[in-house]
Each structure stands twice: as structure tokens, then as C-alpha cells.
Amino acid sequence: MAGSFDFPHRRYNPLRRQWVLVSPQRTARPWQGEVGKATGFPEVHHDPECYLCPGNRRAGGQIAPSYESVYIFDNDFPALLPHSAAQEGGPAQAESNPEMGGLLLAQPERGRCRVVCFHPDHSLTLARMEPRSIRRVVDAWAEEYRLLGEEFRYVQIFENRGALMGASNPHPHGQIWATEHIPDELVAETSALEDYRGAHAACLLCDYGGREQLEGLRVVCRNESFLAVVPWWAVWPFETLVLARRHLRSLLDFGDVERDALADILKQLTTRYDNLFETSFPYTMGFHQAPGDGQPHDEWHFHAHFYPPLLRSATVRKYMVGFEMLCMPQRDITPETAAERLAAVPEKHFMER
Ligand code: H2U
Ligand code: ZN
Fold first, then answer.
1. Nearest to 199 by CA among 299, 285, 273, 115
2. Residues lining ligand 2 (ion), CB within 5 A?
3. Which of 118, 175, 177 is the pocket-test mutation for ligand 1 (most atoms within 8 Å of CB)?
4. Residue 262 forms beta bridges with which residues?
5. Phi, psi of 146 (to 5 degrees)
6. Residue 63: CB within 6 Å of ligand 1?
7. Annotated catalytic residue, options 119, 122, 173, 288
8. Residue among 322, 339, 329, 160 at smallest CA distance from 235
9. 160 touches ligand 1 (CB under 6 Å)
10. Residue 112 burial (C-beta neighbours within 10 Å; 0-12, 13-18, 19+)
11. What are the φ and ψ backbone dihedral angles of 109, each rounded to 5 degrees?
């Protein structure tokens, strides 16, 4: 459909099996709505008021140690608990409530929530950390994924970056939630990957990554092991997908080279994000990888989703409302334009130039 990208069209997301409406002609519309506040970088390396800085008291009361690299602890306000309600004598399984007729279904959910401080320096972000410090975070993620995976079926590693995306604190940190059940997003991606493998005897994301490398139109940056693209089906204006270039199912399949390369691609990509509007660019990012339910999951292909909310400046964000909540997601600038802009910014962080 070359040449027709200037007109409204819809694109298919084969990983999520959903459509997205692309309306490039709409980019010129005026904006008189809310203007947010740009996320700045904290100026201090240690903030006595921060719950996550070394040696400070956490909101839960414990004192954080004087950590020097990565510091991980159980969330003081966890969304999930390691013991289910059933174990505690709470609501029984839904199956034992047939009078509900399946309409008011509830199930106990067990899990564990962890907080990962990436670095003791309060003023840093992944974009501004040394590659070797990010590598230590990658090692910590891999170890948590392995350990939590022994007890829970799914382990979600993620980062909310910036107040605009709900991060509660500017200190460089992320979270890990492990759940007894495989969450819906992962169930959907797993079945798309399985079906593609069944139909084509190939991996959906190996094929997709190969195609993107060939075309080059949506590639933002790459290294020997990873490729970052604005996916064909991106919903958020500057959404990206980081793909392993080899068929790696999860962090457990990573060797030394891939761990270093993951640290490198995260730094490259987050630096480009910051440089786009010369701000500390907000996003939610997370890794999607093979569930730990005892199956081999050869269909699985490790990837990271970056969902940043910003649209046209450091202060104007995209809202997912109206038609998007009621019908389907919609975007204005094309993924190709977004990729071109992210690929065109300098590689070096604007604060360090
Ligand atoms: P977010 O910034 O993505 O919300 O992550 C911070 C998490 O850290 C949040 O879930 C937890 C919050 O419950 N937290 C603690 O467990 N202890 C603290 O002292 C501060 C924040
Ligand atoms: Zn701090």
C-alpha cells in the first residue's frame, strides 16, 4: 500500500490480534486541551526525602541499606500476596459457587511484588547510567525472573518512568510482579505465537524482526543482539518494540553477550527518547517472555514493549479515550514518521553534550 499512508487506514497487530486506526492527516489539528509539566531530572544525587535512596527509611518503615549498585526488596504495598485467600480461609474457588452461573466469577490470586532500585544515585535514569551499571540491573532481573519463576507462572518485569506515567518517585527504579495465573496480555500473545508457529513452522517475531531489518523503515536503533523498531502496529505515538535478533525465549536463554547487549539497547533507546523533546521522557516499559508454567514454550520470543505517552512535545500527551476506549486504538503520525524522528536524534544524551 505504498503511497497511501497519507490517508486513514487500519493496521493489524499479529501479536495481539488487534487492529489500530492510523489517521496521518490529523496531525495538523489544534490543541487547546491540557498541557502537562515536563519531567525534569532531579538535581541531587541523594535526596533525604526519597524512600528509595540508600540509608533512608522506606515508606514501610525499614531502612534501605547503603547499597552501591542494585537494591531489591518486597514491595511495602504489594498488589499481590504470597498466600491466597483460600489458604487464609477466604473466598473459595469460583468453581465451587455454581449458583453464580459463571457471571460473577472470582478466583484467589497469589503473587509477589518486588521493587528494584537500579542505582543508588537519585539523579540518574537508565538513559544516563553507565552500560556496566545497567548490566548489573539486567543480571538482577535475570536472577529474579529465575527465582520467582520457580514459584509463579508468570513474572512481569517493568518500569514506570516519570510522573506522567504514574511513577511514584523519580529515583531510578522498576518493579516485578509475579502471578500464579498467566495474565491476559500474555495469554493472548502466547496463543498468537503458537498459532503462527503451527501455521508457518516459524517464529512470528523472528519473521517480523527479519522483515523490519530488511525494510529498515521503522528501525530506531540496533546492536548485535537486539533491534528496536516502532512496530507497524504501534498505538502510542512513539511506542517501540525491542526484539531479540535470535530466538531467545526468556532471560534464561541469555548469555553474557545478550545481557550486555540488552543493557546497551536500553541505554540507546532511552537516550533517543530523552533527546526527542530534550526532557526526561516518560514511559511504561516491560519485558514479555515465556511463562514459567512447566511447558517448553518454544514459540516464545523475548521482547520489550515501550509505551510512552508523549505526542508532540514534552508537555502534550496522547489520551486513549472516546473511540479508542469504545472501539479501537487510533494514532495520528505514522509509525514510519515516528521511527524516522527517533532515528534522527543524536546518539549522545543532551545533558552530556
Ligand atoms: P512506581 O514508582 O512504579 O509506582 O513503583 C514504586 C513502588 O515502590 C510502588 O509500588 C513501592 C510502591 O508501593 N514502594 C515501597 O514498597 N516502599 C517505599 O518505601 C516506597 C515505594
Ligand atoms: Zn532517591
1. 299
2. 47, 50, 52-53, 122, 171
3. 175
4. none
5. -65, -50
6. no
7. 173
8. 329
9. yes
10. buried
11. -130, 125
Please report which ligand is nearest the Cα atom of 50: 2
CA–CA gap between residue 53 and residue 338 (Å, rounded): 35
| Phi and psi at residue 21, to the nearest 5° | -90, 130
Displacement of CA 50 from its chain's centroid (Å): 24
| pLDDT confidence tier of residue 87, bands split at 50, 70 and 90 | low
User: What's at 99, amino acid-wise?
Assistant: E
* Residue 34: predicted pLDDT: 67
Domain positions in the chain: 2-25+35-39+184-352
What's the pLDDT tens digit per position in 322-352? Answer: 999 999 999 999 999 999 999 999 999 999 9
Q: For the segment 21-77, what is each residue's pLDDT rounded down to a tens digit?
A: 999 887 766 666 766 667 778 889 999 999 999 999 999 999 999 999 999 999 999
For residue 209, the cross-strand partners are none
**R_g of the chain computed on alpha carbons:** 21
Q: Which atom of ligand 1 is nearest to the CA of 166?
A: 4
- The reply to whether the predicted model has a pTM over 0.85 is yes
Q: Residue 137 is inside which H or E element, if any? A: helix 131-151
* Closest to 167 (Cα-Cα) out of 254, 79, 284, 262: 284
Is the CB of residue 285 below 6 angstroms from any atom belonging to ligand 1? no
- Look at residues 266, 294, 291, 273 and name the one whose alpha carbon lies nearest to residue 341: 273
Backbone dihedral region of 101: left (phi > 0), alpha (psi from -120 to 50 degrees) or beta? Answer: left
Closest among 69, 60, 63, 157 to 117, alpha carbons compared:
69
Residue that is written with C-alpha cell 505465537 in the block: 193
How buried is 348 (Cβ within 10 angstroms: 0-12 exposed, 13-18 middle, 19+ buried)? Answer: exposed
How many CB atoms are located within 10 Å of the residue 154 CB? 23
| Active site annotation includes 297 | no
pLDDT at 186: 98
Where do we find the cell 525499614?
A: 62
- Find the DSSP H helices in the chain: 131-151, 184-200, 204-215, 256-277, 323-326, 335-344
Superfamily grouping for domain 2-25+35-39+184-352: HIT-like (3.30.428.10)
